[in-house]
Amino acid sequence: MLGQVLEQIDADLEGSLERLFRLLRIESVSTDPAYAASVKTAAEWLGAELSGLGFAASVRSTAGHPIVVAHAGKHGGTTALFYGHYDVQPVDPLDLWEAPPFEPRLATSPDGKRRIIGRGAADDKGQLMTFVEACRAWKTVSGGLPVGLTLLLEGEEECGSPNLAPFLRDNAGELRADIALVCDTNMWDAATPAITMMLRGLAGEEVIVTAASRDLHSGLFGGAARNPIHVLADILAGLHDQAGKVTVPGFYDDVVDPPAEVMREWQALDFQPEKFLGGVGLSTPAGERDRSVLEQIWSRPTGEVNGVIGGYTGAGFKTVIASRASAKVSFRLVPGQDPAKVSAAFRDYVRQRAPADCRVEFIRHAGSPAISLPFDNDHVARARTALGEEWGKPAAVIGSGGSIPVVGDFKKILGMGSLMVGYGLDDDRIHSPNEKYDLTSFHKGIRSWARILGALAG
Amino acid sequence: MLGQVLEQIDADLEGSLERLFRLLRIESVSTDPAYAASVKTAAEWLGAELSGLGFAASVRSTAGHPIVVAHAGKHGGTTALFYGHYDVQPVDPLDLWEAPPFEPRLATSPDGKRRIIGRGAADDKGQLMTFVEACRAWKTVSGGLPVGLTLLLEGEEECGSPNLAPFLRDNAGELRADIALVCDTNMWDAATPAITMMLRGLAGEEVIVTAASRDLHSGLFGGAARNPIHVLADILAGLHDQAGKVTVPGFYDDVVDPPAEVMREWQALDFQPEKFLGGVGLSTPAGERDRSVLEQIWSRPTGEVNGVIGGYTGAGFKTVIASRASAKVSFRLVPGQDPAKVSAAFRDYVRQRAPADCRVEFIRHAGSPAISLPFDNDHVARARTALGEEWGKPAAVIGSGGSIPVVGDFKKILGMGSLMVGYGLDDDRIHSPNEKYDLTSFHKGIRSWARILGALAG
Questions:
Q1: Which residues in A lie closer than 8 A to residue B289 (C-beta atoms)?
Q2: A348 and A225, same structural domain?
Q3: Are strands B396-400 and B194-199 parallel, antiparallel or unpaired?
């Protein structure tokens, strides 16, 4: 049966691509209210698509963007809950895109690789559609699915998933399954599949510094008036010490290092820092001096300023002393760290650095703890085997620097473990201009899920 | 004769205001190319207005915005060159204006003072029109002017006057006079007129820091990739030490303190730092710890960050590591300092602080030295007497933190001294939202110029 399913996938690749392109054309930017109607359109398109495949699909309202839920498959036997998200990141800076971000296209790169290019190609529409198309092939060939399946497709992943946890709580009975399948992670490299066992958490804060009651002329007031950009620069510059450590008091207190067996697996990986950094035009690791690059991006917490603005930023020059300046700051967290505690410590740090005549205000943007999954698990073992058969190479067991808070919620709210498998690559430029997804990732991703579904039933 | 001229000014105040409002309605923002047509309209309006008064007026093209030149008055006797600028600052942040910036209005403040509100009300359209209206009154009453006059009205003061010095060189014979009259400065306070004898210079630099070849996902790269916002924050935070001194090497090397007699005049002024800072919601001087506030704003050099931008600055949150960040930085200079030398030292300072994987680029925005005028001068003495008669109080001799580079050019290119008299107040909010000019400044400003013109002839 599996052989026929894989043949069907190969035969219908053109059709699969066409469906993905349709989804990519929908401008489902969740963080910007201007795109709310498009986000809804994407949810409805997915609901209709899944209904067409024989799923019992519904588009559910939330206080924010809708969630798509679809059920299918045999009763009794293994059950799985698939999670993906259909919303995408904003597209700015737009002028760095080589083609419009919502007009997806297939391009051949200089090394001969065929790539799907467009916002969401990898994160997460392309990944999500590998699973939908695997289901389609099983349905087409066998009329059914090897396991009982629920799909849960979210529209607010890129803006902090404010409504997902309440939705899980309100619909726990409907959603609970033996295992969650989460497709929002990367391969180890273009030839080596991977199962992600560790994810960093996230604490996001915006800090706004206000000094004078209005913008001032730097000639008349400069030298005497407090400049909030100077204050903010001092706060941001002080966030790291010379050794690359975050200086927020207590930041490292609760950090738990990965288990020794995981560290051993990582050391065995042929990770090349030069290649990783060289791919984006860099050469020198900028983080903690006493840690390897793999630790810096997988198992160590970080503080990064994601945006800063203040004063006159248009063309030309304006000799103004601004009345306010602001920055968006995020902390990637590792197991043991509490996002609320980190946010509170950061706010204390800022308040203590604010001099006379400065008011500081904060906006909380995100807060989720890190995830570390159990290593010895039957579902993990079956998936490793299935991935090894598809790619001709054992699957690596890896960490990831990004955050997928839903994995923590599945554990906490539904009591479910997660299997994180994805086909993204480090050079996919997710969250950046010219985001891409290799055609191989898409094609072999569909085949991989078809195999994993078979293996989980086995 | 002077008595009749002053009566004519009082009688025609309504008409003077109406003409000022017409000029204020023209959106002559010089730094932004989108407003180029409006800047030209303002020049043409002034040319027509001066022709109507009997001046030989012309609107002269330059490589940028035009310059208005107008001649009138008797031959033989004293000659003067009046300078003002008809361009204005950008209006952002627009949402902080209580009414549209180019729809001027007269409002009564809670303390009963009547105020002209709109962009350019004080800087410099209101000030410029005090002189034009004084000429009008002399012409109306006497049919002529007490001194030989040339008006030189510039349209690029707010964007660094790139074409003024060449214009002065090319038209030196036409423009040279006994004294330049410059109306772009403030009174000492609402009751005390002032002659400005010292102006700070300006060096403006934009610094752009670039790291990775594209924006990066802070989850995948955070902790290992160089963040240009961190680098820029470090550069900007390091610009001042704990004592409030600028750290750029050599910055204070050439600083010359004001003459002892000027310092004595300043000490005699009843300057209240609490009131000066309190007017804009501040309480504590933020500059050099070992200097008075008056020194900080008049006779000491400064470094100020006027604008900063990098990464995601829209609504919500985006976990990005930007590939670039930039800041606009200006240095106010005092006598002895060379703007080119300060700019070069700043660039060296930045380059030395840039770590691995960072490229820094610069844009020069302004460069003019400070001005210190001779204290013992016949024109200054005559103007002091005339101002004292109008305001019932001797004119203060003051410094100013702002830069008026044209005064240096008049000296260097035309060999002329300048008399800087203006009727602005510290709370006029120039360069800020809700810019205003007191009706008293406008009315008594016209009367003051009428008296000074008479005194210069005498």
A1: none
A2: yes
A3: parallel
CA distance B53 to chain A (A): 34
d(CA B318, CA A25): 21
B-chain CB neighbours of A32 within 8 Å are 314-316
Contact B307 A322 (CB under 8 A): yes
Q: Which two tokens stand for residue A59?
A: 């588009």
Q: Helix H segments across A143-184?
A: 164-170, 172-175
Q: Are B89 and A215 in contact (CB under 8 A)?
A: no
- The packing angle between helices A13-24 and A2-11, to 10°, is 60
**pLDDT tens across B152-185, in order?**
999 999 998 999 999 999 999 999 999 999 999 9
Report CA dihedral (A132, A398, A402, A173) to the nearest 10 degrees.
50
Task: Flag whether B234 is in a domain.
Answer: yes
Q: Give yes or no: residues B151 and B227 share one domain.
A: no
CB A229 within 8 A of CB B240: no
Q: Compute the nearest-CA separation of A401 from chain B (Å).
A: 5
Mean pLDDT, residues A155-166 taken together = 94
Q: What is the CATH number of the domain that holds B385?
A: 3.40.630.10
Q: Which two tokens stand for residue B123?
A: 């800087």
- Beta bridge partners, B29, equal B88
Check CB contact under 8 Å for B430 and A220. Answer: yes
pLDDT in the model for residue A426? 84
Please determine, for residue A74, whether its predicted confidence score (pLDDT) is greater than 80.
no
Which among B308, B317, B322 is the nearest to A366, CB-wise?
A: B317
Residue B190: strand, helix, or coil: coil
- A392-426 exposure pattern, b = at least 16 Cβ within 10 A, e = fewer: eeebbbbbbbbbbbbbbbbeebbebbbbbbbbbbb
> Given A367, A384, A404, which residue is the final one in a domain?
A367
pLDDT of residue A284: 94
Report the predicted TM-score, pTM, of the whole model to 2 decimal places.
Answer: 0.78
CA distances to A91, A101, A428, B310, B321 from A94, rounded to whole Å, are 6, 8, 17, 15, 16
For testing the chain A interface, which of B95, B117, B318 should be mutated: the one with the most A CBs within 10 Å? B318
Q: Where are the strands (E) in B274-373, listed by range?
A: 302-311, 320-321, 324-333, 359-368, 371-372
What percent of chain B has a predicted confidence (pLDDT) above 90?
A: 82
- Each residue's pLDDT tens digit, B42-69: 999 999 999 999 999 999 999 999 999 9
Parent domain of A18: 2-199+370-457
Between CA B322 and CA A93 the distance in angstroms is 10
- Phi and psi (nearest 5°) for A173? -65, -40
> Are the C-beta atoms of residues B217 and B330 closer than 8 Å to each other?
no
Radius of gyration for the alpha carbons in chain B, expressed in angstroms and rounded: 23
Nearest to A218 among B229, B232, B330 (CB): B330
Q: In this structure, what token pair is assigned to residue A136?
A: 């389609």
- State the alpha helices, DSSP H only, in A327-417: 339-353, 378-391, 405-414
Domain CATH for B292: 3.30.70.360
The CA distance from A309 to the nearest CA of chain B, in Å, is 4
- Give the SS3 label for residue A265: helix
